[in-house]
Write a structure and sequence with these properties.
It is built from three helices and nine strands; from the N terminus they run E-H-E-E-H-E-E-H-E-E-E-E.
Length: 187
């Protein structure tokens, strides 16, 4: 039996070369206490967090995403730095931040415009910072943030050609992301 709601988000997969570089960064910083690192199979770049969505809305959501990507072209995102987010003075997360991109903003806005027609209560950002979450700070180890290295000595380009609808669930305390569908951007 399916659950009445699914916890969903739209995101971008991390390609193998980029994932390898991020895995290298994670393994070389795994000794830092107070950070729960994201499992490499869960690495992604979030486009829109949808929250809990009724199961019966999936078919409409699928159509809405297809319409949203119909005029979007593939593009590239360039890595910028390691960032403690969402705000450095209120950091809860460790991110690999990418430079803002008009193409990324257009993709996000196209989806938000369509989604807000079916979910007017949906909260969204019009100019989100593209990033990959690498880890989360444990509350008890907040002092470690001051010692955290912000150097990301890698030249990374993430090619964006597909958007994915993912579900998020927890099993035995482990976060599990599953791709439900993929949407190809125009070349």
């Amino acid at each position: 039996m399916n659950p009445p709601e699914l916890r969903l988000f739209l995101g971008l997969s991390i390609s193998s070369p980029v994932k390898e570089v991020i895995e290298d960064f994670l393994s070389s910083h795994s000794h830092i206490k107070g950070v729960r690192w994201v499992r490499t199979e869960n690495l992604h770049l979030t486009v829109a967090f949808l929250g809990n969505v009724p199961h019966e809305m999936l078919q409409n959501l699928d159509s809405l995403i297809q319409v949203s990507v119909a005029n979007q072209h593939s593009f590239e995102l360039l890595a910028k730095d390691i960032h403690l987010g969402p705000k450095p003075n209120q950091a809860r997360l460790v991110w690999t931040r990418f430079h803002r991109s008009p193409d990324f903003r257009n993709l996000v806005q196209a989806f938000y415009q369509n989604y807000s027609r079916v979910r007017p209560d949906f909260q969204h950002r019009y100019d989100p910072m593209p990033h990959v979450t690498l880890g989360r700070f444990n509350k008890a180890d907040a002092l470690q943030k001051e010692k955290f290295p912000l150097v990301f000595p890698y030249d990374l380009t993430l090619r964006v050609a597909d958007l994915h609808l993912w579900s998020s669930s927890t099993k035995e305390g482990i976060r599990i992301y599953k791709k439900l569908n993929s949407y190809r951007l125009n070349r």
